[in-house]
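Chapter review: from sequence to fold.
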Amino acid sequence: MLQIQLKVRGAESRRFLPPIHTKASTRTSSSRTFPTFFLLLLFLLPARADEGMWLPMLIRQKIPQMQELGFRLTAEDIYSVNQACLKDAIVHFGGGCTGEVISAEGLLITNHHCGYGQIQAHSTVEHDYLKDGFWARTRKEELPNKGLSVTFLRRMEDVTQQVLEGVTDQMSEVERQGIIEANIKKIGEETLRGMDPGFYSVRITPAYYGNQYFLYLNQTFRDIRLVGAPPSSIGKFGGDTDNWMWPRHTGDFSLFRIYANTDNEPAEYSQDNVPYRPLHHLSISAKGVKPGDFTMVYGYPGRTQQYVLSSAVDYIANHSNPQKIHLRTLRLEVMNREQAKDQAVRIQYSNKNAGVSNSWKKWQGESRGILNANTIGKKQEFERLFQVWAEASGRQEYITLIPRMKELYKELEPYMFASEMYAEAVMAVELLRFANTLESTLVRSGTARAVEVAEDFFKDYYLPIDKEIFELLFAEFYRVMEPLGHLLPADAIHPLSSDTPLGGNPLSRDGLRFSRLAAYLYGTSALADRQKTMDLLAKDSASALDHIRQDPAFLLVSPFVEKNHTGIQPRIAEINRELNLLYRTWMQAIMEFDNNRIFYPDANSTLRVTYGTVQGYSPADAVMYLPVSTIEGIMQKDNPEIFDYNIPQSLRDIYAAREFGRWETDGTVPVCFIATNHTSGGNSGSPVLNGDGHLLGLNFDRVWEGTMSDIEFNLSVCRNISVDIRYVLFIMDKIGNAKYLIDELDIIE
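The token string follows.
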């Protein structure tokens, strides 16, 4: 099937997000010629060396600044369509992370948390790879991973002129978008002509809020096998306690291998496939880092939003994030308690817990960073000065920009809040989400696929956790949604009220009433029980669908899905259409107004280059963090009584004997380091390269104080966190006994 995507958002676009995550658009009097001027202006502006996420094909203009910091290669070494280069070693891993090829035999490294779902899927109580780690001793022991793929960028191209062909100033935005989408489809079809659409795809994305368009030709491999992973006590050391924090001591890595057919082309999984021979693989530097060293991160950042109005930032920091944090706190308290009681439950919910907690903690740091940096106040002052300039210019389209955009945000906020509460409360209940998914799967794909969905669901489902979370989330949902009653479905819960012991108002916020509803729901729904669900799916599709639509879980969730679909999302889309129109003009206007500011395209899950230096930072008065952590810090945190800090006994023994081998540096083993690279979600697993393009480490996090870097990059506190490749090699050698894998690598010492 032909894969052509008009992407205006990043990998997180399927979630309910504020409108600041959408592309923006308006008419311009010079839509054909503007992009050339835009790029010239972009690279004439003075740039702060550490900020920005740069397009690989345009990196040439940044090379002088990079070389001043210690880069010793050329633009062609970073990105080239004529020769193998660094880009040919970088992959989009699983659609949400980054990985890199580190051997001539397709060995791939990414973060442990990026491969966590695959490690968990292969784990059982008998073979707990999360707890004990996994190391394939032969190629035959490497484990296939259903649904996992990695994607290489083969080339990118500026296609602005082709995309905007036929667009005029006189047409409406709907007409304009129709022409753009038709042009994108045509460009994609022409690009893919003669290629296998099963493994090649075209993605065309806007940059600068729709003022420019870039084409990405991608090649995807679907036979990816798990090769190695340290125990979670190393790969996830510090757990949620240390997440987003510095100093960090986490060996956050896992190893996979890309397989291809005998012609070295992508293929579906087959025992006949062989290790992929990459166009380029990264050499590894065991020389380490020191303060001031150049670093470059090459990966797939998900989403930044540097140019949004203060209204959008205020909503995130003071309204959206606090409530989402509270709802996730309720969920995590239940999960953590129940996981601590039972090893099987711990395995079942390990990946779910990590997914919930990651954003939960990130949102806390983001809001705090926004408030500490006075980001809202600074944007408000910028907007005030812009308004003065706009009025002096006499240009009406600029004068009315901010007032109208703020009006739209005010109209949008209740709908966005309701949308997020639906996502974080109603659809966070596993049973309700499963009921909705199962019904839609039956409609779209039939019984066979529905059985697969059900098997996947029940493999990692524990009813007591879900039932308690239902009670807590629904009580809180109705509390916060009380002022927005018009955005609630009129028949919510009502279809069940006559059959339940609720009595009175079915929308009551009384916790006891929700407890009774939970008892009824989880006691009577066939979808809460694996065998009953499988019996139901054994019927013909029509009968199975009828039974599901009469199930209490589906009857409960369906009105919410319908209200969201018909009463909330359309209004969000309607308001966003006008915001989208205005944001494109806003981007042009602020570049004219603030011609001393660096302007780089917001990240959108496409391949980017960011660079900086190894530096510590001071998060608070009288506090100074050094930029490198060591194995001594692991031993200082080690505590067998605390799950997140209980390291393997083998690591304690190695430390006690000081058997560090060739990975020792100044009497210790470096573990992690921080630098000033501008990273975002999606950069997890990205290679951190030195000035010669050699692998220094794997990016896996940001410091908590700097998580607002998606909105404002603050050089004083924004740091990316990476696991030192020397610690990775040390763990492979001393814990994994995987010398055979180390021998596969090109290591520069």
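Two observations follow directly from the output. DSSP finds 26 helices and 23 strands in the chain. The two ends are 47 Å apart (CA to CA).
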